[in-house]
What does this fold into?
Amino acid sequence: MGETIATNRIQVVRATAWRDAVLKILEPRSPYRPWRVPAGTRRGDAVLAVLDTNPVSVIADIREVGVDGSAMRALGGVLDSELPWREPPELLELATLRDLTGFSLPDAGDPATVLGRTVLTAAIGQRQEAPSGVEYRNGHTSLAAARILLDSLGSCTSCGGKLDLAEPDARDRLHIRTVDLAPSERRVPVADDPPEEPQRLSRQGYGPDDIRIGVWRPGRFPMDWSAVLCDTCRGGMHHGGFDSFLRFRFSLHPPCPSCAAQWTMRTYAGFAAVLRSEPWMFHTGCCPGSIWVCAACGHKWGPRSGSEAG
Ligand SMILES: [Zn+2]
Ligand SMILES: [Zn+2]
It folds into this structure.
């Protein structure tokens, strides 16, 4: 340790096919060779990965070339598969980075070596502290598609099954579904809101949390949800005639035996580093509850869920 002396040089590594590049990050054993690396990369150089998405993006993680002098090895570190849970790196529009740092990377074409590592590292470091990847998931751009694929960590959003990314045809056997969600688009409730609680309940003296017991606010979901699907789930969605992945995903759960709504969430419990944002999953806190909860009426049923669920 301590042998590597950081240089001021940044090696700009360009992807010629963003989908292959993201797959290679998710699965280092992939046979794809999407990266073009500048000649003369040396130990201590920083590596900045540029994806040929529209708009053009960079992986917001600066890796340093180690003693082996390999930019590829350094790049592989953006997703450390040895960690118990993995956080995909942020993506950042190249134009935004240019604006933040004041320097411009060479235009499309050749890989290149540029100077200015300190300012670049600072700009990207700030970006990482403010989780902002979500905003890039919306819309039908290839930047959104790359973000969705990276966030999948190589699993099908629907069934949770591992996609076989080491295969030569991996790129053709996964299906990225982008969604058009304007930030202004409101989430829609899956059922009518219950009437306001009568005032008298607040006088029972159990404290503010107790008052709400028995009142279920219907879930509010977007119209659709971005996803990476395996062949099987994509086929199931197609055969079922669904045009919304979210509706398809909810259709895989049993309907509510109380109100017959098809908005059943599967519960999970226990410590979670990051709470799952999928609408069809429901965190019950530290204690497992019944495995199914109706997002429309709040009815709970079924055996207790485990701490892990897909
Ligand atoms: Zn699947
Ligand atoms: Zn219900």
